[in-house]
Amino acid sequence: MRAALAIVTLLLLAPAVAGAQESRCGELSATQMEEARALFIAGSAAVEAGRWADAIDSYERAYALSCAPSALYNLAMAFRALGRHRDARDAFDRLMTLHPDLNPDLRTNAQQFRREEASRVAVLELIDIDPDVRPEISFDGRAIPDEGQRPVLVETDAGSHSLVARLEAHQPFVWEGTLADGQRETVQVIFRPIPTGDDTVAIVLLAVGAAALIGGGIALGVVLQDEAQLRPLSPLTVELD
User: DSSP letter at 26?
Assistant: First the structure.
């Protein structure tokens, strides 16, 4: 049935793009319109084959060109199928914010899925960080901005993760652990001053090296886990309207 609906997608893309032009995408050339159509159909074919990562790339690019809400809805569903709950929640939020005239049935589905995805986002709560300092924080190898909010909240998906926090003149603080869907974990961050004496350099190098190894290993594990989560869930994707 999805294969048959792909033909409908081809026929209905033009009016969808035309409506988007009037809102926020601007005028599309014939080449851009064809590209958006091809990308959407490629995303649908990837869904049919269970290649969710490929579908994400196609739907993202199709939406960037066309601003068609069906492309953004399908993108959110692809994130959901991969267990990327935080990204799925944010995509559903974008869908409902940027498209207030969304089809009522589609909006109802999006709201339901958004609630489900939000409940599955894991949160790491960093406590006891002095509000007057701004440590450098990296989570799974990516920088986490510290804008002064206390406690610092780090949102993520289920799996094995690592966090490294650095403060000048202090030893790096390192945390590693496994989080489940929807889990909220509280972590007390303690910065210990760098000791003085003959062993100072060795201690600092060991701490930094351990942080780097943990971060790299967990990052690889997260990538492998993402690939392992490819599964043919019912995508409930929609066609361009």
Answer: -
Q: Tell me the per-residue pLDDT of 196-223, one tens digit each, with 9 for 90 and over.
A: 865 555 555 555 565 555 555 544 444 4
Q: What are phi and psi of 119, to 5 degrees?
A: -70, -15
pTM over 0.70, yes/no: yes
Counting Cβ atoms within 10 Å, is residue 77 exposed (0-12), middle (13-18) or buried (19+)? buried
Residue ranges with strand state E in 81-220: 122-127, 136-139, 142-144, 152-156, 159-166, 173-179, 184-188
Nearest alpha carbon to residue 80 among 155, 179, 181: 181
The whole-angstrom separation of Cα 187 and Cα 192 is 15
Q: Count up the domains in the chain and report the number.
A: 2
Q: Which of 119, 143, 168 is the last residue of a domain?
A: 119
Give the CA diameter of the chain: 75
